[in-house]
Amino acid sequence: MKHRFRSRSFFALGKLLAILGPLLLIFYTFLYNPPCNEPSSDMLSPIVVKLSNSTETVNYPTNISHIKFVLVGCTKTWLTRRPYTEAWWRPNQTRGNIFMDSPPPKEFLPWPKTSPPFQLNTDATKLPVYPKLANPIEARIFRSVLDSFSLGDNQGVRWFVMADDDTVFFIDNLVQVLAKYDHTKQYYVGMHSESVISNFLFAFDMAYGGAGYALSYSLVEQLAPLMNDCLERYPFMHTSDHLTSSCLFDLGVALTLERGIHQIDLLGDISGMISAHPQVPIVTLHHFDNIDPIFPNRNRTEAVKHLMKAAEIDQSRLAQQTICYEKPMNWSVSVSWGYSVHIYESIIPRSILKKPLETFKPWKNGPPPLYMFNTRLLTNDPCHTPHVFFMEHIRKLQGNSVVLTTYRRKAPRRQQPCFVPGNYSADNILRVRVFSNATVRKEAGKIDCCNVLHMAGMNVMNIKLRNCRKGEVIA
């Protein structure tokens, strides 16, 4: 009897396990691998997620929350530079800190929410190498990335972006640019100076921190513990940017260039450069204290805020040059969307118009070449001197599907018309209106075309931006 009972018990237990086994497996699967029914707001750079000793790659795009800004300033200049930073900083969206050399004085307090949170740099003077440094002040700036990383609030950070407090960012474009790269790999993204002599004095393959550069999280994770060792290795270097690039080169990481990052090692009127911006997203502009206001009849702060009005509506087109022609009048038209319009009283090929007018001066004098790009010299020839218009206002039309930007003449050109048969004077044009698509972002690297809608005798010119037709020659 006992033997028969024991056999039946084992048989019943086996049946029970056979039934419960698959159920337990299903339960385990759903418990540790819950289904994800809600779409994520992140999507582009890959993240590696480990599950049960297996590795699964899931793609989430890079967005603003994945970028941590490491801004460097000082209390002496913060009052004048604060408006530049606040023009682009987005409270409750952007993350990061402004690192200062000393605690904020009473007149700075309470610290405004419109500014990046204040943070004091750690004391670099206690480092053994400090007395040996050729330029000790730069050690604080160089170690700001380490200070930011050491704060520990790095959850979800994919990129550390370094810049000065007189740099203006165009955040949507920054996100678009960084989303191209895999943040789990080691990337050092930036741009060299516009000035040949600046690059000659420091390095042609170095990113300039004033303009801003981005370091992927995995790179900062490796670099941070080695930064003090790097100071020991390069005590003779004079700038934090040169220190950073040298340390990264020692790790085998080269600079990845992004042409929309602008150091602006130039002086005076940089409108010629902005008006011929290449077909890449504009990411930063630097050195506002050293250049003329970028819009006429405004101070520097007002000019920056005015540019940001266009940036708030469409950063994908901002400043990028579009060229078209009004053949009946023999006019060439260059549109820097959201910034300026130039009208020439002759037909000039795009290959020439895309070269910036040299309205600016070099950062330092030296033998030619002075700039890292080709330029056109200013001239008194009325056939090659433009009528210049700057953005006056911007608004959306037709149920927010169209953007209208209006550009007003800067001043009378005060030159004779271009005396070429078939040419007409553009002196009577007072405003230019440009219509663009508000629902489609401009693709990086893609050249737009445009149609000029103008009636002879009218003092307003209308221009419609459009996609170029296949095989269309812009000349």
TrEMBL record:
Keywords: Membrane, Transmembrane, Transmembrane helix
Signal peptide from the UniProt entry: none
Record field: transmembrane: 12-31
Single GO molecular function: acetylglucosaminyltransferase activity
Domain of life: Eukaryota
Record's keyword annotation contains Transmembrane: yes
Protein name, UniProt field: Glycoprotein-N-acetylgalactosamine 3-beta-galactosyltransferase 1-like
Organism: Gossypium hirsutum
